[in-house]
Every structure is written in C-alpha cells, then in structure tokens.
Amino acid sequence: MHTLFSKVKLHDVHENVFRNIVSLQASQDLFDDLSDAPQDWELAQQVEEEVKPPSYISTTPIIHRPFEDAHWFNAITWPFQHWQASRYSDGQFGVWYGAESIETSAYETVYHWYHGLLADAGFQDRDVRIERKVYTVACDAALLDLRPFHKSQTGLMHKTDYSYTQAIGKRLHREGHPGLLTHSVRKPSGDCYVILNPDVLSDPRHCCYLSYRLDGDKIYVEKQVGDSWLAISVSGL
C-alpha cells in the first residue's frame, strides 16, 4: 500500500455523479398512519421542519424546502449517518458511492441486490422486483485517482475480498481526504466515486427511476416497467 500512495495523483473533479438508491416510485406520506386527516399530516410536517436542525444552507423558498431536504437526505446524507461495511469501509465510518453513468451504477447495485438482500432472504431463485431512484449529484473535490493501478494492485478490483480497499479507506478517512476515484469492479469500463466528506457533494437532482427484475438467470433493468434496458447475467456477477 505504501507503494501505491507514493505514486498516486490527484484528479480535480467538477462533475455530476450518479447515485442509485432503493426507492418507491410512488411516494408515500410518512405521517398518514398517525391520522386520517390531511391537515394533521401537514401539521406534523411543519413541526418536524421546525425542530429538525438544517443539514445545509439553502436559498430555496421555504415552501419547497421539504422536497429539497428529501433529495439532500436521500442522495447525499444517508450513508454518512448510517454506517455499514462496504468495499472502502469496515463499518466504522460512512462512505458515499457514486458512478460516472447510470449504467455503471446499475451494474454495481445489481450485484449488491442479488448477492446481498436476495441472498440473505433466500430469494435468489424467485421472480422478484425492486424499485430504484437515480440522482445526479454535483461533486467538486480533489480525489485520489486509483484508476491507473487497477492491474498492478490486484486488491483494488477483487470481487469479494475487501481487506485491501478497506485499509485504503480507513487511512484516507483518518487523514481527512475527501475521497477517491477508481474503476468499477462490476463494470470495469466504468468509474466509481468513493466520497468520505459530504461537504464536496451538492445540488442533488432526481434523474430517473429504475426497476430491477430477477427472472431465471438474468436481472433485467427497466427504465419503464416492461421495457428492458439492460439484461445482466447473474453468473457474471
């Protein structure tokens, strides 16, 4: 690893990055189970807004703030508040992952859906579907560029062993680096953004909805229900 850090360079990033998360395509009111009256839902939302500390400074008119705040929380804040083990974290700190394209984000998240959620639930042999939402998020940061080392440092691209990359993430987090740029393991022609500091992310915008449908030995990615955009073989995951 010392050899890697002695050679790695910074890449000055000022780009829109795609963030792909689980989300219902039909929105739900979070307070509708507390009362049958819509005016009570509005009151609960107002109380929540008044007591909740702001996570960012916004110039958006207050009437639109709840929608903006939801975008910010879903697209940026969530992984920094809900730590879990991943390729670049041992679970002791939060990491935000994005991709340079919607397609790369699909390959990455399809893998974790199939080998994570479906495997844990014993649903890998069933016909199941999940809904996703893709955001574009502005990223402005000087990131460590690990892309030139994906062949010489085999631990960077290992499909299941995260020990090498978690050690990298732990050091960068301890030293206060904003993050890194690396090739996607699930779609090597794509790139992934690994962010450790939420302050370098801004302007989250809804991009599109996706649906993942497991059917036999393939996962179909749909931008519109029934219209397959990508077909990903589970044997290649």
Spell out the key features of this protein.
5 helices, 237 residues, 30% helix, alpha+beta, globular
The low-pLDDT segments are 26-31, 60-67
Tally of contiguous helical segments = 5
Shape: globular
Rounded mean pLDDT is: 86
SS-based structural class?
alpha+beta
Series of H and E elements: HEHHEEEHEHEEEEE
Provide the β-strand percentage band. Answer: 25-35%
Q: What value does the Rg take, in angstroms?
A: 19 Å
N-to-C CA distance: 27 Å
The structural domain count equals 1
The total of beta strands comes to 10
Helix percentage = 25-40%
Biggest beta sheet attributes: 8 strands, mixed
Structure commentary:
The chain is of the alpha+beta class. The chain has one domain (2-236). Helix content is 30%, strand content 33%. It is built from five helices and ten strands. It has helices at 2-7, 38-51, 65-81, 102-121, 163-175; strands spanning 9-22, 85-86, 89-90, 96-99, 128-145, 179-183, 191-195, 201-215, 218-224, 227-233. The strands form two sheets. Strands 1, 4, 5, 6, 7, 8, 9 and 10 form an eight-stranded mixed beta sheet that branches. A two-stranded antiparallel ribbon has the order 2-3. The chain is globular. The two termini are 27 Å apart. Mean pLDDT is 86; it is low at 26-31 and 60-67.
